[in-house]
Structures are given as structure tokens and as C-alpha cells.
Design goal:
Layout: H1 30-39, E1 40-46, E2 51-53, E3 61-67, E4 70-75, E5 81-87, E6 92-93, H2 95-100, E7 106-109, E8 113-119, H3 123-129, H4 131-157, H5 160-177, E9 185-187, H6 192-199, H7 203-215, E10 220-222, E11 225-227, H8 231-238
Antiparallel strand pairs: 1-8, 2-7, 3-6, 3-8, 4-5, 4-7, 9-11, 10-11
């Protein structure tokens, strides 16, 4: 795949990264900070709707999302789509291509994105020279596996209202940790179809379930914003333990 020209002249230096200021991410040591600045080769800006990575294709680059939102999805033989996960600032993108040689899912920008760009060939230098960063990559893979297990349990065993509550609860927690909230509201620029494809429901069923959550005053998704007035009540419906959530994650 080809991308728009990278903006290397005005790229954000790792020492000035706004994500590093957030308590949601682990701190860098001076050594790690120096390594990451060398590992980073540029920045990329793409528009909403751009397909960043394509299932079945390789990529010479790896990415960390600096700003914006997107989603990962698999396309089925009949053209239907399964949303695998939603992508938020700080997420590392392209690891599958880095290890397996090609992507097993696609990645699309839901909003305009700014991404830190890394050379895929240099990923092995992380394992050779920066074991702490290598452990961070392993941690990210492990937490992704945990999330997919939780998603599978939701689709297979939870009711419709539990599934949608689970998705909204997880999204609200992530975006709040990223300080993207305004009080109890967070931006949610996705479509109802995206949520439906993530939790395995029809669009009509998803719409009715969202209306039920709004009627119960558990969650309201209007004009691209999600409002959760009582996150513990929503989490209880979803079967989510807020006290057992990951407090910090590595930032690559």
C-alpha cells in the first residue's frame, strides 16, 4: 500500500509526545526515550476513511496512533464484516505484519489520524537492544489476546444489552483514561453499524438496545458523543469489573 507523504520536518519528538504526559501510559526511562526517538522514522497524516493496512497484505511500516480513532476488522467471504477492535491514541498498529509477514485483518481510519511511523525491519533491534521495549510489545500482544477472549465471551454468552453495555463501557473507560472526556461525555465518532459489527448484532437490534440503555439512563450516544452518567451501573450491566482494569499500558 502507498500512503501520503510523511511529514518528517514537523514531526513530534518523543520527548514532547503528549501521550507520555498521561497517567494511562508507563513512563519512559532516559535510555528508552533515546531509543524510541531513533526507532521512529517519521509521522503520517491520513484522512478519515483511509485504509491504513489491508488484510492479506504486508507493510514496510509499523505505527503508533498519536491522535484520531479507527478500527480493525476482518472481511468475510460474503462481504460481511467483523469489527475486531477499536483503535485509540497510543495503540500500536501493524504488529501482525511485523511478525507474520502479512496482516490478518484490515485497519481503517474513522477520523483523521496522525501516526508515528517505524521501520518494520528494525523491529528486531527492539528485541536485541531494548529488552524492556520487547517486553512491552509482548505485553501488548497479551492484552490484545485477553481482549479478544472477552469479546468472544460477550458475543457467545451475553445478551444484547450486555454486549452493547460491555462495548460502551470499555470504550468510555479507554477514552476517559486518555483524557478525551468532557465530564461524563467522550467523543464517539463511530457509526451504529460499527458497534453492531463488533458485538455480533444486527443494526436494528443494536439501535433498539441503545434506545433501551438510554431509557434506563445508563448510556446515551447522541451526535457523536457518548455520555455515561454512572459508569459503575453500566459496568454492572455489562459484567465488567472496573476495579480489575489495567491501570497503565506501555507506549511504543
Amino acid at each position: 500500500m502507498t500512503y501520503p507523504e510523511q511529514n518528517n520536518r514537523f514531526q513530534t519528538r518523543c520527548g514532547d509526545c503528549p501521550l507520555r504526559k498521561l497517567s494511562a501510559f508507563e513512563e519512559f526511562s532516559p535510555q528508552t526515550l533515546k531509543f524510541m526517538q531513533q526507532f521512529k522514522v517519521g509521522e503520517l497524516k491520513i484522512e478519515a476513511g483511509t485504509q491504513l493496512l489491508m488484510e492479506g497484505h504486508s507493510s514496510p511500516q509499523l505505527f503508533t496512533l498519536l491522535s484520531g480513532m479507527g478500527l480493525r476488522y476482518k472481511t468475510l467471504e460474503d462481504g460481511d464484516r467483523q469489527v475486531v477492535n477499536f483503535i485509540f491514541p497510543g495503540d500500536f498498529i501493524g504488529m501482525q505484519a511485523g511478525i507474520l509477514g502479512e496482516m490478518k485483518h484490515s485497519v481503517e481510519a474513522t477520523t483523521a489520524m496522525t501516526l508515528c511511523v517505524f521501520d518494520r525491519k528494525e523491529i528486531w533491534q527492539v528485541f536485541r537492544n531494548e529488552p524492556q521495549r520487547a517486553f512491552s510489545l509482548t505485553w501488548l500482544v497479551a492484552i490484545e489476546e485477553h481482549f479478544l477472549g472477552e469479546a468472544l465471551a460477550s458475543i457467545g454468552q451475553r445478551s444484547a444489552i450486555q454486549r452493547v453495555a460491555w462495548a460502551l463501557s470499555r470504550i468510555h473507560s479507554r477514552l476517559t483514561a486518555l483524557k478525551l472526556n468532557n465530564g461524563s461525555a467522550v467523543p464517539l465518532p463511530y457509526r451504529q453499524r460499527d458497534i453492531a459489527d463488533a458485538v455480533g448484532l444486527s443494526l436494528v437490534h443494536t439501535n433498539k438496545t441503545l434506545a433501551e440503555l438510554r431509557k434506563k439512563q445508563l448510556a446515551s450516544w447522541v451526535d457523536g458523543h457518548l455520555v455515561v452518567s454512572d459508569k459503575r451501573k453500566l459496568a454492572k450491566v455489562a459484567g465488567v469489573d472496573l476495579d480489575n482494569e489495567v491501570s497503565q499500558r506501555p507506549l511504543i
